[in-house]
Amino acid sequence: MSIESLKNLIPDYAKDIRLNLSSLAGDESLTEQQLWGTFVASAYGARNRAVIAAVEAQAAEHLSPEAFNAAKAAASIMAMNNVYYRFAHLAKNKEYQTLPAKLRMNVIGNPGVEKADFELWSLAVSAMNGCGMCIDSHEAELRKAGLSNVEIQTAVRIAATVNAVAAVLDGEGINALGALAQAA
Asked: Which residue among 20, 36, 74, 82 is least enclosed by CB atoms within 10 Å?
């Protein structure tokens, strides 16, 4: 299983998604850990088992166990935070923004990898989940850490493409895990 085998499952009408997946897998604007951690966090954020399996297989060649775990942790904590903070941001009653969240988020303070990498992965998942409040917060932290607009944009491009792959496979009802197993 790999990104290449995943690409083979994408129908011709989504050729642009396939091409974007290829080019992003070889992108050099991010460090190897940033790139593959973004792929892992985005795959988990997209919630498609076949995409997760293909990305995990390839990312395993590039990430330490700690980085792998932190990328998954970014996706899991953003699954919670993006709902909560999107609600607080969108609700007419702005008092919700002043109340403490009272949700455990310890992993954000101690992710087990460089803080900027974890923030990048959190931003990618937040973009997928459409949480403007979280996007602004993570983008500000990334700018403080010295990441460029191009680096930040690359992470969001990865998230957008991984999300599109999951949407196409889900939409087509492709038994992607079975197809990936046969392709491996």
From this structure: 20
For the beta carbon of residue 74, count every other beta carbon within 10 angstroms: 32
pLDDT digits (tens), the chain, 184 positions: 689 989 999 999 999 999 999 999 999 999 999 999 999 999 999 999 999 999 999 999 999 999 999 999 999 999 999 999 999 999 999 999 999 999 999 999 999 999 999 999 999 999 999 999 999 999 999 999 999 999 999 999 999 999 999 999 999 987 655 555 555 5
CA distance 87 to 134: 11
Taking the domains of the chain in order of start, what are their residue ranges? 3-183
Q: What is the CATH number of domain 3-183?
A: 1.20.1290.10
The yes-or-no answer on residue 131 being catalytic is: yes
Q: Which of 21, 52, 131, 166 is catalytic?
A: 131
pTM exceeding 0.90: yes
Whether 134 sits among the annotated catalytic residues: the reply is: yes
